[in-house]
Amino acid sequence: MFKLLPTKCGTADNKRLQLAGPVSVIAAVACAECGAHALAYWPSSSLLWYVDLEVFRPLQYSFGAANERLAFGDLAQTICVVAPLLALICIGMITGRRLPLALASNLSLLYSAALLYGSYVADSPVAGTGGKFAALWAPSFFLAASILLAAFVSSAISHRTYWREIFFKVYIADEAPFRAQFSRIRSPRRRV
Questions:
Q1: How far apart are CA 22 and CA 88, in angstroms?
Q2: Contact between 60 and 145 (Cβ < 8 Å)
Q3: pLDDT digits (tens, 9 = 90+) for 27-79
Q4: What is the pTM of this model?
Q5: Residue 123 CB partners (closer than 8 Å, separation 6+)
Q6: CB count, 10 Å around CB of 156?
Q7: Where are the alpha helices (DSSP H) in 72-138?
Q8: Residue 73 gets which letter from DSSP?
Q9: 158-179: b or e for each residue (b if 16 or more CB lie within 10 Å)?
């Protein structure tokens, strides 16, 4: 089974895929912040109002309570989400270690899951039992689901690299005594 898994196949692609989740979370938060600032400059733009109220709704609700309680104001989401992800990515890329990148991908998975739940809660009707699936067709739900998908792939890649490293070390350590034993049994071929 382990012979089917090559050890050096696509390590650069794995690193790029491992960054897909954190980069998508950072891009979504940055786009929401830019949209909010653009709306402050052009309040009559219907496109900006649509994007701010419909597409980036879960980003607004995810840190709504934190904006009131923390002293950061409107930058609470940027400071609490984007800054740690950027710090982990920079540390991982500069030092060449995989642990900060794995932490960034797992944190982006957690935040994107909370974002998807926030999207469903924000778009679902408050009263009544019918119409719960109408929240699944909102643009904010598709944004949150796409971020969750990228973060899931990123997290799965980081877990796969760690599991592969653990199993290959165990497999190679267990295989060495058997190779030594079988090399003594084989006799060299004689030329006739």
A1: 10
A2: no
A3: 988 888 888 888 888 888 888 888 887 788 777 776 665 556 665 566 666 77
A4: 0.72
A5: 57, 134, 135, 138, 140, 141
A6: 15
A7: 76-77, 83-95, 99-123
A8: G
A9: beebeeeeeeeeeeeeeeeeee
